Amino acid sequence: MTEKFAVELGKLATSQALYPKESMMAVEERRRSLFVGIPKENSFQENRVGLTPDSVKQLTDQGHRFHIEAGAGSHSKYSDNEYSEAGAKIVYSTEEVYEADIILKIAPPTYDEIEYLRPGQTLISAVHFGNLTSDYINALLRKKINAISFELIRDKSDAKPVVRAMSEIAGSTVMMVAAEYLSSSNEGKGIILGGITGVAPTKVVILGAGSVAEFATRAALGLGAEVRVFDNHIYKLRRLKHNVNAQIFTSTLDKAIMYNEIKQADVVIGAFVADEGQITCVVEESVVAQMNPGSIIIDVCIDQGGCFETSEITSHSRPIYRKYDVIHYCVPNIPSRVPRTATQALSNIFTPIFTEFSKYGGINEVLFMNDHYRSGVYIYKGSLTNAHIAKKFGMRYKELGLMIAVRN
Q1: pLDDT number for residue 278
Q2: Taking the mean position of all CA atoms in its chain, how far away is CA 119?
Q3: For the chain, does the N or the C end have fewer beta carbons within 10 angstroms?
Q4: Which of 90, 96, 177, 166 lies closest to 128 in space, CA to CA?
Q5: What's the pLDDT score for residue 279?
Q6: pLDDT tens, position by position, 212-244
Q7: What 3 state SS string does the chain have?
Q8: What is the average pLDDT across 17-43?
Q9: What integer pLDDT is reported at residue 31 of this predicted model?
């Protein structure tokens, strides 16, 4: 088979022509009881859980089973008793959780946790593409599982609901963080974030124009701050201005303009979206060195490499450090700062997903019927199906659409 033929076959396999449309045929509902396991998160500073007790109650009322590891919801202020009252079985060992057919985690499983997986299971978790290694992918492949990255799942509008929800939280939260560290109680500049009558407003520079930037802009404008947004995609800048309904200053990444604004800013937020899993550093150390003493850098994309040359990963327990007398807040996973809110947002997304899994009769069936779920699959039946991961590590992969079409 020639390379050209293989490419065309792959395109055909992933085209919509091979898949039945709900609008064109009656969908026979084959409801199936799901068995879901929710482990306690062991990853550093991960405080969220996938479902609230209310959502578990909704799903158990539909006939689904849950094994939830003791303490899984404690950081989000949900007790084991609440989950038990909702119909879940509280288990006290990781092995019991992994008896389930579907494992719902927030952080990617550790190597130790991967050992609990068995062939045929479905793992739903984050992937953290910026920190991914070929050894890690091979460890998952050896388990012959199905693996779904919830960051990649799209909804029927072609948006990424989990990314959007967590970006909304991060964008709103960063302005609270900035306000906290501008105050003199945290040895900041002693200024208010925003502005009041007769006093010049705080200057906020935001790098990036995605969802995080949009909600950070909303929060900053609401407080009365002066906001400047930089991004190389004009359509993103235009969309942001439209969504916040304000004539704010926007610019492409013109270094002369951008660096001048950064040097004068009170708060600088790095909120770029990684196109290939890794952020390119855009702010040099020499620029940071010229920023006003006591100003604040918040690098939201630190888990993807960061966009400031002076950025170093911090934690929720020790969130800041100073360099050139500039406060650096470089905590990955900012939504874990408000885990209960984040858990509620995730639960609003995962609950209807599980309901749909059940409606169609299981994971394989829902992938066949719904192309927006296929976008999240990166391992299917033990085979790598994500082209980006394959390209990054020089690995072979299979077209998911072709695998599903042949199976059915």
Answers
A1: 56
A2: 26
A3: N
A4: 166
A5: 63
A6: 999 999 999 999 999 999 999 999 999 999 999
A7: CCHHHHHHHHHHHHCHHHCCCCCCCCCCCCCCCCEEEECCCCCCCCCCCCCCHHHHHHHHCCCCEEEEECCCCHHHCCCHHHHHHCCCEEECCHHHHCCCCEEECCCCCCHHHHCCCCCCCEEEECCCHHHCCHHHHHHHHHCCCEEEECCCCCCCCCCCHHHHHHHHHHHHHHHHHHHHHHCHHHCCCCCCCCCCCCCCCCEEEEECCCHHHHHHHHHHHHHCCEEEEECCCHHHHHHHHHHHCCCCEEECCCHHHHHHHHHHCCEEEECCCCCCCCCCCCECHHHHCCCCCCCEEEEHHHHHCCCECCCCCCCCCCCEEEECCEEEECCCCHHHHCHHHHHHHHHHHHHHHHHHHHHHCCHHHHHHHCHHHHCCEEEECCEECCHHHHHHHCCCCCCHHHHHHHHC
A8: 67
A9: 72
The third-level CATH classification (topology) of the domain covering 166-337 is: Rossmann fold (3.40.50)
pLDDT for res 80? 97
pLDDT at 406: 63
Give how far Cα 321 sits from Cα of 1, 87, 315, Å: 57, 45, 11
Q: Tell me whether the CATH fold assigned to 35-149+338-405 matches the one assigned to 166-337.
A: yes
Q: How far apart are CA 186 and CA 171, in angstroms?
A: 21
Burial class (CB in 10 A: 0-12, 13-18, 19+), 188: buried
Residue type, 214: E
Mean per-residue pLDDT for 136-143?
Answer: 96
Above 70 in pLDDT, residue 8?
no
Mean pLDDT value of segment 121-150? 92
pLDDT band at 321 (very low <50, low <70, confident <90, very high): very high
- The rounded mean pLDDT for the chain is 88
Q: Domain ranges for the chain, please list them.
A: 35-149+338-405, 166-337
User: What pLDDT score does 45 carry?
Assistant: 84
pTM of full prediction above 0.90: no
Contact present, 155 and 133 (Cβ < 8 Å)? no
**Active site members:** 128
Residues 282-307, mean pLDDT to the nearest whole number: 92
> Residue type for 209, please?
A
Write down the architecture of domain 35-149+338-405 according to CATH: 3-Layer(aba) Sandwich (3.40)
The amino acid sitting at 78 is Y
